[in-house]
Amino acid sequence: MSGLVLDSEALSLLIDQRGNGYDDVRAAMTAAYNSGVKVHVPAAVLAEQFTTPTRSHALTAFLARDGGALTIHDTDRRLARKVGELLHNAGRNSADHVDGCVVATCVELGGGLIITSDEADLKAISSGNPRVRVASTS
Question: Domain limits of the chain?
């Protein structure tokens, strides 16, 4: 595995430290760390979490506590182009922007595993990228 990429739901489970799938996400992170694989989160995923004052506070506290274990990926021009290409190829539009960022991040890493609650959507967007694997949080 080149990288472990978390989508918004996987990150949410970590922030809340509970919920269906929390143990699966923690196990995947532990396996990644033990293998020397970094855990990646696109900045667009953070944006989905910074939507209310309560959620923003929880994310800020999580990042202060455990955030050093995550590699945050900004959306630069190259990644933006890859997101657009992936969405176009999957017949999707900008409504799937964040999912596109998750898949594009994984593609840019050379492949890896995406942890998500949107397994069907991310599989559709990652179609044609055999080095990208998608696993559900539930």
Answer: 4-136
Q: Which of 3-7, 19-23, 57-61, 71-75 has the lowest mean pLDDT?
A: 19-23
Residue 2 has pLDDT above 90, yes or no: no
SS3 (DSSP) at 39: strand
The helix/strand/coil state of 114 is strand
Query: Which position has the token pair 């990646």?
Result: 40
CA distance 138 to 136: 5
Specify whether the CB–CB gap between 32 and 67 falls below 8 A: no
| Whether the predicted model's global pTM rises above the 0.90 cut | yes
- Top CATH class of 4-136 equals alpha beta
Three-point CA angle 92, 84, 124, nearest 5° = 40
Model confidence over 11-27: pLDDT tens digits? 999 999 888 889 999 99
Distance, CA of 126 to CA of 18 (rounded, Å): 28
Residue with the two structure tokens 């050379």: 110
Residue carrying the six token digits 């609650």: 117
